[in-house]
C-alpha cells in the first residue's frame, strides 16, 4: 500500500521543474531547522498555504463585489466579501479593502486618496524606525510628495510628542503616518489623533508589524483614534503576503478608488482567499493566546539580553520586536547578522536611531518573537535564545566558526521538539 503523500511534497512541481522543486524543498528544511527571529516573518498554517495555491489563481476580477468588469464572478465575489466582513469583525472597522497587493502599494494608495503630488505628508524618519513609504526621500512617496519626518528622543529612544505636534502645526501635512518597522514600544494612537485633528491632517496608522497583536488584544487598537489603517496581512497576523486598508465609512470611496482603478488592476484572488482564512484563524480564542504569548516571549527575551549586557533601543520592548545596538559589543550589525545566520539564528541587520554607520552596514540587529512563538516556544526558552545570541555575537567578533557551529547544533536539537506550522519537514 502506498503511503499517503503530504500535500506539500509537490509531486507536480517535481515532475515539471525538479530544479525549482529542490529549492522549495531546501527552503522548507531551512525554515524547519533554523530559529527565525526576523520580526516581520512568521509561519502560516497549512490552511493558509492551501488557500494561496487554489484555482482562484486562474480568475481575473477587476472591480469590487457586485461591480466587476469580467463575468463569472459568482464565487469570487463571495470569497472577497467573506474576507472583507471578517476584517471588519476582527478589527472592529466600518470599511475594509482587501485588494492591495502588499503594504507599500497600500500606503501609496493612501497618498493617492488624500493628497496631490507636491503636498506635504509626515511620517517617522526611516533611520528612526519608520517605513520607506511614509514620505522617505528614496521612495515614490518622498519623490512625488513633500515628506517631513519626526524621530525619537536621543536619550530614551521614545517618540517626543511635543516635537511631533510642533512639526505638524508648522508643516500642516495632508497626511500623518504613525507606525513603522523598528518600533519596540506601544504606539500612542490617542496622542497622534489629537495632533492630527489639531493640524487638520488625515491620520493613518500603519500597523503592518502589530496587526496580529491588535487583533489578539495584545496591543491597543488604533480604531477609535485614526482615520485610516494600513496593514500587511502576514507578519504577526499569520496570513499570506498581501495587505488591507481599513477606515471609517466616510473614507471608503476615496480608498477604494485609489486601489482600483488608481493603482492596480485585478486583485490576486488566491491571496484574498488566504487572507479570509487567516482572519478566521485570528478570530479564534487560540489566536488571542498566541498574540499575548508573542509579547510575553519578547519581554522575556529582552530581559535576558539586558542581563547579558546588550544595549536595547528604548531599554526593552512592549510588543514583538527588539532593536539592539551592538556598538558596546564592538561588532557591526551586518557581521553579527551573518554570523548568527550561520549559527541557525535568522535575524536582520538594522540601523538604530542616530546611527553613525551606513544603512547597509549599520550598528544594530532587529529581532522578534512571532515565528518562535508560532512553533510553541515559551518564556522559559528565552534565556536559552538570549544565550545563543550572546555566544553568536561574541563568536562573530572573534571569527570563531566552531562556536557558531556548536550553537547551530543546539538550535537544531531544540527545534526538533517544536515543529513549525504548515511545514512538511
From TrEMBL:
Query: Can you say where in the cell this protein is located?
Result: Cytoplasm
Looking up Pfam families in the UniProt record yields:
SHMT
Q: Which residues carry this modification: N6-(pyridoxal phosphate)lysine?
A: 235
Q: Which reaction does it catalyse?
A: (6R)-5,10-methylene-5,6,7,8-tetrahydrofolate + glycine + H2O = (6S)-5,6,7,8-tetrahydrofolate + L-serine
Assigned EC number: 2.1.2.1
| Enzyme class of the recorded protein, top EC level | transferase
Pathway linked to the protein: One-carbon metabolism; tetrahydrofolate interconversion; Amino-acid biosynthesis; glycine biosynthesis; glycine from L-serine: step 1/1
Q: Which UniProt keywords apply?
A: Amino-acid biosynthesis, Cytoplasm, One-carbon metabolism, Pyridoxal phosphate, Transferase
Q: Does the keyword Ribosomal protein apply?
A: no
Q: Which PROSITE patterns match?
A: SHMT
Q: Where does (6S)-5,6,7,8-tetrahydrofolate bind?
A: 126, 130-132, 249
Q: Which cofactor does it need?
A: pyridoxal 5'-phosphate
The site feature described as Plays an important role in substrate specificity is recorded at: 234
Which ranges carry the Serine hydroxymethyltransferase-like domain? Answer: 14-389
Instruction: Show the Gene3D superfamilies listed in the entry.
Output: Aspartate Aminotransferase, domain 1, Type I PLP-dependent aspartate aminotransferase-like (Major domain)
* SUPFAM superfamilies in UniProt: PLP-dependent transferases (SSF53383)
InterPro entries per record: PyrdxlP-dep_Trfase, PyrdxlP-dep_Trfase_major, PyrdxlP-dep_Trfase_small, Ser_HO-MeTrfase, Ser_HO-MeTrfase-like, Ser_HO-MeTrfase_PLP_BS, SHMT-like_dom
Q: How does it assemble?
A: Homodimer.
Family statement: Belongs to the SHMT family.
Q: What is the annotated role of this protein in its UniProt record?
A: Catalyzes the reversible interconversion of serine and glycine with tetrahydrofolate (THF) serving as the one-carbon carrier. This reaction serves as the major source of one-carbon groups required for the biosynthesis of purines, thymidylate, methionine, and other important biomolecules. Also exhibits THF-independent aldolase activity toward beta-hydroxyamino acids, producing glycine and aldehydes, via a retro-aldol mechanism.
Instruction: Supply the name of the protein.
Output: Serine hydroxymethyltransferase
Q: Which organism is it from?
A: Streptomyces zaomyceticus
Taxonomic lineage: Bacteria, Bacillati, Actinomycetota, Actinomycetes, Kitasatosporales
- The record's gene field reads glyA
Amino acid at each position: 500500500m502506498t503511503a499517503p503523500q503530504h500535500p506539500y511534497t509537490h509531486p507536480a512541481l517535481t515532475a515539471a521543474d525538479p530544479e525549482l522543486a529542490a529549492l522549495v524543498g531546501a527552503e522548507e528544511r531551512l525554515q524547519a531547522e533554523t530559529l527565525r527571529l526576523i520580526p516581520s516573518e512568521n509561519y502560516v498554517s497549512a490552511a493558509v498555504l492551501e488557500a494561496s495555491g487554489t484555482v482562484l489563481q486562474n480568475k481575473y476580477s477587476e472591480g469590487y463585489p457586485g461591480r466587476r468588469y469580467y463575468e463569472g464572478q459568482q464565487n469570487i465575489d463571495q470569497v472577497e466579501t467573506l474576507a472583507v466582513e471578517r476584517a471588519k469583525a476582527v478589527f472592529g472597522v466600518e470599511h475594509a479593502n482587501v485588494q492591495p497587493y502588499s503594504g507599500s502599494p497600500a500606503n501609496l494608495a493612501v497618498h493617492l486618496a488624500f493628497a496631490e503630488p507636491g503636498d506635504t505628508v509626515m511620517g517617522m524618519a526611516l533611520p528612526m524606525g519608520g517605513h520607506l513609504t511614509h514620505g522617505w526621500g528614496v521612495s515614490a512617496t518622498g519623490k512625488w510628495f513633500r515628506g517631513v519626518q519626526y524621530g525619537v528622543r536621543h536619550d530614551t529612544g521614545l517618540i517626543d510628542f511635543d516635537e511631533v505636534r510642533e512639526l505638524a502645526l508648522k508643516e500642516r501635512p495632508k497626511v500623518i503616518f504613525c507606525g513603522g518597522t523598528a518600533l519596540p514600544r506601544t504606539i500612542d494612537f490617542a496622542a497622534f489623533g489629537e495632533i492630527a485633528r489639531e493640524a487638520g491632517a488625515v491620520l493613518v496608522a500603519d500597523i503592518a508589524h502589530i496587526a496580529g497583536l491588535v487583533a489578539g488584544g495584545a496591543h491597543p487598537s488604533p480604531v477609535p483614534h485614526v482615520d485610516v489603517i494600513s496593514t500587511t496581512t502576514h507578519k504577526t497576523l499569520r496570513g499570506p503576503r498581501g495587505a488591507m486598508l481599513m477606515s471609517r465609512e466616510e473614507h471608503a470611496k476615496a480608498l477604494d478608488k485609489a486601489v482600483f482603478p488608481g493603482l492596480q488592476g485585478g486583485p490576486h484572488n488566491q491571496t484574498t482567499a488566504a487572507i479570509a482564512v487567516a482572519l478566521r484563524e485570528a478570530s479564534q480564542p487560540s489566536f488571542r493566546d498566541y498574540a499575548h504569548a508573542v509579547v510575553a516571549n519578547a519581554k522575556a527575551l529582552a530581559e535576558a539580553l539586558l542581563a547579558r549586557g546588550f544595549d536595547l533601543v528604548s531599554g526593552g520592548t512592549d510588543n514583538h520586536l527588539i532593536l539592539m545596538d551592538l556598538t558596546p559589543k564592538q561588532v557591526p550589525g551586518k557581521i553579527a547578522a551573518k554570523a548568527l545566520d550561520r549559527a541557525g539564528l535568522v535575524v536582520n541587520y538594522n540601523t538604530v536611531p542616530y546611527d553613525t554607520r551606513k544603512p547597509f552596514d549599520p550598528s544594530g540587529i532587529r529581532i522578534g518573537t512571532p515565528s518562535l512563538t508560532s512553533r510553541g516556544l515559551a518564556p522559559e526558552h528565552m534565556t536559552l535564545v538570549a544565550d545563543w545570541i550572546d555566544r553568536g555575537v561574541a563568536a562573530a567578533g572573534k571569527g570563531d566558526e566552531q562556536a557558531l557551529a556548536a550553537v547551530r547544533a543546539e538550535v537544531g536539537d531544540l527545534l526538533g521538539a517544536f515543529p513549525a506550522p504548515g511545514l512538511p519537514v
